[in-house]
Structures are given as C-alpha cells and as structure tokens.
C-alpha cells in the first residue's frame, strides 16, 4: 500500500489556495519546533463567514497537503465551524496520513485557530496597528 493517499499526493502536487491575502482580516502562523516546518494562514472574513483563505507553508508534503485541504474545508464556512475543524477531520479529508505525519495536520488546525484569534484580537484593537 502506498504511504500517501492519492488525495495527499494531489493536494501536495496541486495545492489549492497558495499565497497571501494583502488585506487579510486574520493571519495565523504556527511552527513545529521538532521538524522546523512553518505554516501561515490568511483569512478574509465578512459577517463572520470566511470568504477567502490562503496559505504559505514552508514544510513537508503532508503539511502542504494539510494546508491545502484545510483552507478548502473552511472557505465559505462560518467562523464557529472553522474553529471546530480538527486535525483529524483534515487528515480524514485527505484519506489519512501516516501516523508520524499527523502532526502536519495539527499545524493546519492550530494555524487556522491562530488566524481566527488574530481576527478577534484586531477587532478589539481600535488602533488596528497589529502587524499582518
Ligand atoms: Fe513537520 Fe510535516 S514533518 S509539518
């Protein structure tokens, strides 16, 4: 059996939503200290709905596939649903990840949560001077 599912390979080779959003409403970045991979998620949010999501991932193929799938899963969804996206759901949507690569999907879950937190922090910061 192949180590990686066809979906993982597809999202690794043809990642969806790669890039940045210049006027993002929330940005979240997470890194894994062990492997050194870094994931950054950008969100555009209107009326509590994620209207656009992009990512920059400096990391392994599983992290790129997880970013790609995770951004697909949250686009068009309310923040309340995106906050509940688990790494397990990302891995399942990819038809599974090898056990030693599950932490790559954790980066996606946590980077999205960080981006949503950033959105709420910005709303509570009247100066709007937080770095993007
Ligand atoms: Fe660390 Fe994939 S090996 S994110």
Distance between the termini: 42 Å
Global Rg: 14 Å
State the strand order across the main sheet. 1-2-3
Assembly status: single chain
Q: What molecules are bound to this protein?
A: FE2/S2 (inorganic) cluster
Low-confidence stretches: none
Can you count the beta strands? 3
Shape: globular
What level of helicity do the residues show? Answer: 40-55%
Tell me the strand percentage band.
15-25%
Query: What's the rounded overall pLDDT mean?
Result: 94
State the secondary-structure class: alpha+beta
Number of helices: 5
User: What letter string, H or E per element, gives the SSE order?
Assistant: HEEEHHHH
Largest sheet: 3 strands, antiparallel
Please describe the topology of this protein.
Elements: H1 6-13, E1 26-31, E2 38-46, E3 49-58, H2 61-74, H3 79-82, H4 87-93, H5 102-123
Antiparallel strand pairs: 1-2, 2-3
Helix pairs in contact: 1-2, 2-5, 4-5
The structure holds FE2/S2 (inorganic) cluster.
Give an account of the 3D structure:
This protein is of the alpha+beta class and 132 residues long. Helix content is 42%, strand content 19%. The protein contains five helices and three strands. Strand 1 and strand 2 form a beta hairpin. The longest helix has 22 residues, at 102-123. Residues 32, 35, 37, 59-60, 62-63, 101, 103-104, 107 line the site of FE2/S2 (inorganic) cluster (FES).
In short, what is this structure?
The chain has 132 residues and is of the alpha+beta class.
What descriptors fit this protein?
132 residues; alpha+beta; three-stranded antiparallel β-sheet; 5 helices; binds FE2/S2 (inorganic) cluster
């Amino acid at each position: 059996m192949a180590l990686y599912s066809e979906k993982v390979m597809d999202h690794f080779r043809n990642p969806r939503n790669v890039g940045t959003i210049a006027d993002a409403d929330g940005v979240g970045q997470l890194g894994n200290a062990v492997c050194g991979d870094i994931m950054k998620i950008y969100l555009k949010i209107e009326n509590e709905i994620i209207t656009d999501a992009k990512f920059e991932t400096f990391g392994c193929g599983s992290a790129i596939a997880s970013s790609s799938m995770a951004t697909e899963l949250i686009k068009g969804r309310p923040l309340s649903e995106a906050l509940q996206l688990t790494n397990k759901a990302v891995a399942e949507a990819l038809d599974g990840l090898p056990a030693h690569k599950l932490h790559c999907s954790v980066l996606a879950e946590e980077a999205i949560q960080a981006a949503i937190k950033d959105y709420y922090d910005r709303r509570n910061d009247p100066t709007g001077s937080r770095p993007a």
